[in-house]
Write a structure and sequence with these properties.
homodimer; Alpha-Beta Plaits; 2 domains; twelve-stranded antiparallel beta sheet; two-stranded antiparallel sheet
Chain lengths: 346, 346
């Protein structure tokens, strides 16, 4: 049993963990481990948005960003996913990860200009970037052998960690929680720059990417997941998308991961922006929509036991004000962090 | 909005609350308020145990303890409840409350001798007492106007309190949590004294009495409670009774409150002894049996909204080693805290 907090980020605590030192989780979970030399990671979401049939410009833009990713200074890993949002627009989001901020910065300046610097026919584009210090970030995996998201660029996975399977584990896994309540500061502001709309969000904004992979499940387990768990998960994701703002969820996307050939895969993830880690905690712990998800997942996992083939993971970041970048071009006003601010119709 | 911690018990914190200062609970709840002069309360459980038809000795014992309660130095309030335990024995427990330790001590010495000092034909008797400082104790009520248990002897009820409707609220309402993790110390020990068996339990032992009152519910609400909530609650109570030890629950009784005429009423409570507050927290937050109870209660309350007539309350104490007293005479070895120690057959 090891701590989710890597040894070199352990500090003298001024805030306590939520569980006693002798706490033993009831089942194993694992976290991504970066090389100690990695001080920051970057997670960058590049979105294409359109309504109706796929415009040629969308296909071109997706090829273009893939080309940029493959070029000098590009990410160590990226993936792509799809969803249809509350306004009926399709969104295809390419998510890229770096573990070197200098390499990212050099790569990003021209890539940004290429992505949101010019209008394209019939599509909107957007960029959402966090570049947190590793002390502001945590991951959790239900099993080994198939890292996802930011964990792909890590050095490897931990052994079994202590801080999970209780409410508050997410916070306790973030190294900064040893000394900082990570309270939100300020309110999101719109910064128009011609047609480009930037959002300056609040200090200690929180991002979660929470994924499901049912590709290894067979017959009865697959049926149980798709019939009993997935619909409840979808209902919760829809609630956050449509009514999240009142409880501090700025935006939520329930994404279908696309495979390399652009087809849908048997993987999904929810990705959401929150005013604070505390707001995410409150929803997860006590909102009826997540209590239902938690109940369905508990029932599923206790029915299957250790033989379950479903893979679950998440990554959570609490970003300082200067670790964030949001820019939207020709997107509808409920896109991503635009939903957190008042915009005038373009 | 006020703190559940009374002003005169606020201290310089070395441990943080689980929620931010601006946390707003989604619905109202209330706590009992004692006069600031009250430094300790006493909760004393006097049990009668027998198998099969009620022996004359049981009826006599119940009349006797009621007489003692009514005498000089007796409790400010008491109530009585009934349950059939895992060994098939009936248990009738008279629970009495004091807010003056000197009065209790003077009253208790002869009462104890009367209750567990002599064997009675065909029945066992037991005494379980906590006498915590008020800083080691909290209550919670879903509505005003009908205090139960220890709250009956309080000065009154608070206004709406902040520390509830999140996991960790129970701990945050206990004043001592401001500075102390309330970790358990030591292991329960059996102290035989002839036929009398005493248990010296561990430091920071935890007691919860968690009650339900459906006497005000009508037609459809009553049906919903009795059909959808109560069976799930009973299942959880049975789990704690039969299999609780492995998760730190020494003993659990799911009691039917008896009215003044000795008949059953439309009130019940679960009463359980725990190794620690942390063990109780873990069960409540993540054990499938309580997750089901929580889910059923959430569904019930969200169906009915503010019109719900069901009343819920609890009282929780974390007692220091010298604030506890357990004594059993002619009871079976799974009775109360005897379940926590090895006993030889009498």
């Amino acid at each position: 049993m090891e701590s989710a907090i890597p040894m070199h980020l352990e500090t003298q605590r001024t805030r306590h963990m939520r569980v006693p030192d002798d706490y033993q989780p009831p089942y194993p979970s694992f976290v991504a481990r970066y090389k100690p030399a990695v001080s920051r990671v970057v997670m960058a979401y590049f979105g294409v948005q359109y309504r109706g049939a796929t415009p040629a410009a969308a296909t071109e833009a997706l090829a273009e960003i893939a080309g940029l990713f493959a070029g000098e200074g590009g990410p160590s890993h990226w993936d792509r996913a799809h969803y249809v949002d509350q306004a009926g627009h399709a969104n295809i989001v390419s998510v890229a990860y770096w573990d070197d901020i200098a390499r990212f910065d050099a790569w990003f300046a021209p890539a940004r200009e290429a992505w949101t610097g010019k209008s394209r026919d019939g599509i909107g584009t957007f960029i959402e970037v966090l570049r947190p210090t590793v002390a502001r970030h945590e991951t959790l995996f239900s099993s080994l052998g198939r890292p996802e998201g930011v964990a792909v660029i890590a050095d490897g996975m931990s052994g079994e960690v202590q801080e999970h399977a209780y409410w508050g584990g997410m916070r306790d896994r973030i190294p900064l929680s040893q000394t900082d309540p990570m309270s939100p500061g300020g309110n999101p502001e719109l910064i128009p720059d011609g047609a480009r709309l930037r959002v300056k969000a609040n200090d200690n904004l929180c991002l979660i990417r929470s994924g499901q992979d049912w590709s290894d499940t067979e017959a009865s387990e697959r049926k149980l997941y798709l019939d009993d768990v997935e619909p409840v998960l979808r209902e919760g994701m829809d609630f956050l998308r449509d009514d999240g703002l009142a409880i501090g969820c700025y935006a939520n996307r329930y994404m279908e991961v696309l495979s390399a050939d652009g087809k849908t895969s048997e993987k999904s993830y929810g990705q959401s922006w929150w005013k604070s880690l505390a707001a995410l905690e409150r929803w997860a712990e006590s909102h009826p929509t997540h209590v239902k998800i938690f109940g369905a997942a508990m029932k599923y996992l206790s029915t299957l036991g250790p033989s379950a083939k479903l893979r679950l993971y998440h990554e959570v970041t609490v970003a300082a004000a200067d670790e964030q970048f949001f820019e939207y071009l020709n997107c509808h006003p409920k896109t991503g962090m635009l939903a957190a601010v008042e915009t005038v119709a373009a």
